[in-house]
Amino acid sequence: MKIVIRALVLLLIVSAMVLVSCEEPLDQAQPIAEIIETTPKQSVVFIAGFDEGDNTYYANAKAHFENQNLKIVDSLFSAEEIITWLNTHHNYKEYEQIHIVSHSNPWRGMSMKVTKDGQRITTEALAEETLPKLQAPITENTQVIFHSCGLGENMPLLRELKKVFSTDAAPQVMASPYFNVFGGKYAGHYLAKPYYGFYPTAESPGPYALAKEFKETYPDVSINWFEALKIRQEQQAGAVYTYKFNIPVTWEFTFDDPEQLPQLKNRDDIMDWISEDEEIALALHQLNIPIEKYRWRSSVSGNTLTIKGKTTVLCVMQPVMQKDEYRVASIEDTQLYRLL
After folding, report:
1. Could you give phi then psi for residue 121, rounded to 5 degrees?
2. What confidence tier does 185 reach under pLDDT thresholds 50, 70, 90?
3. β 95-101/42-47 pair status
4. What is the mean pLDDT of residues 24-29?
5. What pLDDT does residue 326 have?
6. Rounded distance between C-alpha atoms, residue 133 and residue 151, angstroms
7. Would 226 be classed as within a structural domain?
8. What is the mean pLDDT of residues 107-116?
9. Phi, psi of 147 (to 5 degrees)
10. Helix 278-287 and helix 267-275, axial crossing angle in degrees, nearest 10
11. What is the residue range of 168's domain?
12. CA end-to-end distance (rounded Å), the chain
C-alpha cells in the first residue's frame, strides 16, 4: 500500500501590490457611530507582495498609487495582517476604498496568504484557516478593490473574500477578469486580456507549432499568433505581446514495501501511472492543464517515489483599448470589473 506523504503544487506567475502606514491607536471610549458621521472618509492601498529578480510589478503598482496620494501599506502579505491593520489604524474614519494588490492566476488563486504563516488564498484555504473578525468602520458603500490578475473570473473565491471583508455591513467587492499591468511603457496602469498556451518546460515544439495551437484554441480571435509569440514586451501602444512562466508540481509517495514501487522508465510510464492515481488526477483536473503539457520526471529514494512535472505557460497579452487609447481601468466600467 502506498501512503501519500506530501503533495505540493507550486505556481509562478506575475502580478499585484500593497501599502504601509501607521497611526495612533483607537480611543475605545469614543462611540464609533457618532464619529463616522463627523469625520472624513479614508482610503488605503495594500501592496501585498514583493518583487523578485528583475520583476518590478509591485514597485510599479506602489508608484501608481503614490501618484494618487493614497496611503500605502507595503509590509503585509496576508489577509490576517490586513484585517488586523484595518482594525487598529482607522481612527474611527469610515473606509471609502480599500485597494489590495496581489498576484493571482486562474489555477491556484492569489499569492497573498490567508494567515501570516498559512496557505495562499483559495476558496479551500479560506475554509480551512481561521481569520480574525473585521471590526473596522466598513459600510455598504465601502469599496474593496482587488488588483489581482483574472480574479474577476473566479466568482466563488470573490464571494468568499467578500465575507472576509464584511462586518455587520457587506462592502462592495470588485475585481477584473483581465490582467492588471502596472508600469507599462505607454500607460501607468491598464488591463489586458490573456490567451494561454502550454508546452513541457524545455521541450518547446517551436513557434510555428505553438502558433497553430493558439489558432486552434482561439479560432475566433484575430491575432497573428506567430508574430505575437516572438514579442516579449510592448513595442507600441496597444500592441499584443507575450510573456511566459513555469508551473512546477511535485508529489511524493511512500510505500510500505519497496517492492511495490512502480517501475517508471520513461515519460509515458509516468503519465500512465499518475493518470490512474486519484489524488494526482484530481489535482491536474483542477489545474485544467493537459497532462501531456508537462515535462515529467521521477526518482526513487529508499521506499519513497518522487514525481515532478513542469509546464511552461505562454501568456499572450492583448491590452484593452478604446479606439487608439488604452481603455481607462475604471471600477465603474462593468465590462472591465466584476462587482459583488
Report:
1. -75, 120
2. confident
3. parallel
4. 37
5. 93
6. 23
7. no
8. 87
9. -100, 75
10. 100
11. 8-184+323-339
12. 47
